[in-house]
């Protein structure tokens, strides 16, 4: 194996450096499932280079079984890839899911399994510098470049590969398409006509809808038009994360004991808890938490979270640990937040005090949306949870106070206070809650529609009427008079 | 066919039907060469606009009555295009800056700048300044009011502002002090009845005195509404009879219904129904303060004095908060809930006494 590689290494060194990923993969696939030390490959130096940028690669999945994605999902992708590559037509696949759910890893690992060459589009930096004369060079448009690239890579094989199967991967969408989705349709049209290889699009989903490429670019009609197969990924499950981390720990204990401390089970547990289903961040955390060099262990900074009931799996109380300094911030979607406020759960602590499972302060801290929009949601939805008018009165008092504070836009802190007043008030007001399933409704659109002058032909044409006056005085009577 | 309100609007300061003393003062104000910014305020339907149009006619002659409509376009700093309707003559321009909501500052600054930078071509025998009329100044955002203050000072040489407001309490003091404030009080009921008689005479109709008084009473001392009511009654039934039905504005009936709902049952479910009604009122453009007043009037009708006092003070508190806040529905709903809580307690207490 090593010999085989040697013959091209000195000649095509550029290839090695430009896409180390691919070569590594192809090597690995022919070898046994165990990992090989990157140090062996790069140079004869046996000590591991601490500053190696590719340390992340050490933990990358090699076999498809190692990918921390549910096997059924993998199977789905695998199925598609097999049929698409066998037919070698220009099928299209869209993968969407939260960040770090293993979309790219699945595609890359599967591709290496079936010996498919993956070509990925990376949007070039196109900052234009003015020439000496001060005028800008006219460059090719991004979409044109993109189209050229994907078609070329779909139709022409590289001289250096003997692979027959090709796959085009697009993860990094040029900004042009976000601004004008029609252009994207044109590109796909061209691709459908001219290209001979399947293409995979990968979109990360975020909480914010306005940045959701999967949602914006790939509309339902577009998916139908080009027969795009859509596979949605979920965030990695806790067991999946654990398995992946266990594998990483194995790798560490086998080869990298000189750079890493061997992580304990507790540490793994807290990493799983704090990463929120993001495998990439979990690996990063593992790397950081177990690096050698620090005098004392990071475990000392683990905070023991209060006991949280696990609702979904009917387990007993499980203690969840979290890192203080690591991990993602917990974020809460707006609907989730509404649920937490309107159905406050009380827990009795060991010393007999009643506390809330989610304190108002925590809910506010975990928030991404604008306070006023959240208050609107609360206002729309709180009513069915109440059974007593006195409680409603207290809750509304809090909401009305909150609204006053929030509208003070010159002081930023007022927004937070207003939100706090409203949330805390709502959570404490309800003494006799109604437990029923209440679907969350969005706030009403309160845009006022004043009647237009064309609806009221009797009025003087060249007179400026005020909207308020039109509604309160004219509307009723012009109807009577005009009839 | 135009409405009586428009057809019989006085066009000359000397022909106004009430506040004649004030009219004379206004006339003498115009006859002097200089003329300050004006802030005209008073309740709706008191005759503010009528007086201003008379004043303009006094200033510029009948040319000020040749009006044309125009849509003006502005661009906000955030590059949003907004458009607004204006009505103008050769000498003045009138606009409702509140039509564009929070972008009112841009409208005020750009509009006044545009007008103020163009001088009258032929100033012989004419005034040297143009007039900008801004409606609903009390509903302007604070931002816009401050912009207005600066603009007023800067362009005082070439343009005069006439500001119209319902109440000066929400106009910032800086603007108040830069203007000559003129209060136009609402006409008394007898004054309204008098105007109704005059208009009916012009139309060649005979109006019974009792009906005139009833219309005047139900109009809330709003002359515009009184005239519209009178014309609507004429359409419904003529010749007039003293006891004929005077049509009420439909939103008033709607508010009465809403109040009745709150009185019928005090529960969260009923509050939900009341809220739907309130939504409907707001979306149709009924000003929330009017809803507040209407609700209060209906709700306290069968309460005793101590409860009336209590509810009125809560209404005042919520109304004040509504002015400070962004969402009128919150405070309206809170008021209704407060009322329900108090009323329920009162009912339970009085029932307890019975047994």
UniProtKB/TrEMBL annotation, chain A:
Q: Name one GO molecular function term.
A: ATP binding
Q: Fetch the SUPFAM superfamilies from UniProt.
A: P-loop containing nucleoside triphosphate hydrolases
**Keywords from the named record:** ATP-binding, Cell cycle, DNA damage, Nucleotide-binding, Nucleus
Q: Which GO terms describe its biological process?
A: DNA damage checkpoint signaling; DNA repair; mitotic DNA replication checkpoint signaling
Protein's recorded name: Cell cycle checkpoint protein RAD17
Entries under InterPro entries matching the protein: Checkpoint_prot_Rad17_Rad24, P-loop_NTPase
Q: Where are the transmembrane segments?
A: none
Q: Which family does it belong to?
A: Belongs to the rad17/RAD24 family.
Where does it reside? Answer: Nucleus
Q: Does the keyword DNA damage apply?
A: yes
Give the GO cellular component terms, alphabetically.
Answer: nucleus
| Region named Disordered | 1-48
User: Which classification does the entry list for the species?
Assistant: Eukaryota, Metazoa, Ecdysozoa, Arthropoda, Hexapoda
UniProtKB/TrEMBL annotation, chain B:
Q: Which UniProt keywords apply?
A: DNA replication, Nucleus
Q: Which domain of life is it from?
A: Eukaryota
List the molecular function annotations (GO) for this entry. Answer: DNA binding; DNA clamp loader activity
* GO CC annotation terms, alphabetical: DNA replication factor C complex; nucleus
Q: List the CDD domains hit by this protein, alphabetically.
A: AAA
Q: Where, per UniProt, does this protein localize?
A: Nucleus
Checking Gene3D superfamilies in the record gives: 1.10.8.60, 1.20.272.10, P-loop containing nucleotide triphosphate hydrolases
Q: Where is the AAA+ ATPase domain?
A: 34-190
The record's principal subcellular location, in a coarse class, is nucleus
The processes (GO biological process) annotated in the record are:
DNA repair; DNA strand elongation involved in DNA replication
Q: Does the keyword Nucleus apply?
A: yes
Q: Which InterPro entries match?
A: AAA+_ATPase, DNA_pol3_clamp-load_cplx_C, DNA_Rep/Repair_Clamp_Loader, P-loop_NTPase
> Oligomeric state and partners?
Subunit of the RFC complex, an heteropentameric complex consisting of a large subunit RFC1 and four small subunits RFC2, RFC3, RFC4 and RFC5; the RFC complex interacts with PCNA. Forms an heterotetrameric complex with RFC2, RFC4 and RFC5; this complex has ATPase activity but is not stimulated by PCNA. The heterotetramer of subunits RFC2, RFC3, RFC4 and RFC5 interacts with RAD17. Interacts with CNTD1; this interaction facilitates crossover formation.
Q: What does this protein do?
A: Subunit of the replication factor C (RFC) complex which acts during elongation of primed DNA templates by DNA polymerases delta and epsilon, and is necessary for ATP-dependent loading of proliferating cell nuclear antigen (PCNA) onto primed DNA.
Q: Which family does it belong to?
A: Belongs to the activator 1 small subunits family.
For this entry, the protein name equals: Replication factor C subunit 3
Give the originating organism.
Answer: Euphydryas editha (Edith's checkerspot)
Question: Which lineage ranks, top first, belong to the organism behind this chain?
Answer: Eukaryota, Metazoa, Ecdysozoa, Arthropoda, Hexapoda
